[in-house]
Design goal:
Blueprint (H helix, E strand, L loop, with lengths): L1 H21 L10 H22 L1
Length: about 55
């Protein structure tokens, strides 16, 4: 379980650093509507797949 959590954390750090490098706005791009929508869709997808695993 700890290996999975570490892998998820590493992906989050890499995606955030990549987005900050690509956007000229820096940290402001993390609060853009498209970034928030992507976060919401990702969390929703994880929730749905977790529910399917429990069935």
């Amino acid at each position: 379980m700890a290996i999975g959590a570490g892998a998820i954390l590493q992906v989050i750090v890499e995606v955030i650093s990549m987005q900050m490098r690509q956007e000229a706005k820096g940290a402001g791009s993390l609060l853009a509507p498209t970034a928030m929508a992507g976060l919401a869709v990702g969390i929703g997808f994880m929730y749905v797949t977790a529910m399917l695993v429990n069935i």
